[in-house]
Amino acid sequence: MISYIKEEINVVKDRDPAIKSNLEVLLYPSFKVMLSYRVAHKLYMKKHYFMARWVSQRAVRKTGIEIHPGATIGKGLFIDHGSGVIIGETAILGDNITLYQGVTLGGTGKEKGKRHPTLKDNVMVSAGAKVLGSFTIGENSKIGAGSVVLEEVPPNCTVVGVPGRIVRRDDKKVPCEELDQVHLPDPVLNDIRELQIANFQLHEQLLAMEERLKKCVEQNCKN
What we know:
Elements: H1 2-15, H2 22-25, H3 29-45, H4 49-63, E1 66-67, E2 72-73, E3 78-79, E4 86-87, E5 92-93, E6 98-99, E7 104-106, E8 118-119, E9 124-125, E10 130-132, E11 136-137, E12 142-143, E13 148-149, E14 157-160, E15 165-169, H5 187-222
Parallel strand pairs: 1-4, 2-5, 3-6, 4-7, 5-8, 6-9, 7-10, 8-11, 9-12, 10-13, 12-14
Antiparallel strand pairs: 14-15
């Protein structure tokens, strides 16, 4: 238990620049909920389902983070702030994953059995993003804030939008300490800009045609 607590302290310190001392980690919702999850998961695996849910629900009330005791979570999960985070029963999370507030790893309501997503190592899911369904998010991928992901994401990708679209896939590893949620590509904004440019060009062509038509009419009237 002591070694686990030390490990969790290092995880929080590595990924949150706001922390100033080890004692602060003890106050973090992420730290508290992961301790409760480990206990609840062991109870769940021993088929003590009621006690497992009792432990997990107490943690929800204290932290605002809901992790089903049946979820499988690797080492180094960090949930920043954490309010509103939901991790479903059949979700599988690898190592060194970072989740922000309002993230949902849920199902669509149609599947049976494996209903929730699998996140491979070093995945980052930004604030308010929803990952819904029993597919896989590949290693080192980033999900932009507010995105809704409904299908599989290959490794080393960046996904943004509703529904989520892959906007970067360059096979370059995204380090787990790169936690920039803001400077991500915006495919919708790019499409709007292209439409604006096309509309401006069309407007200029129409003005030119109108000018030529006026000249033709004036010449015909003189003749």
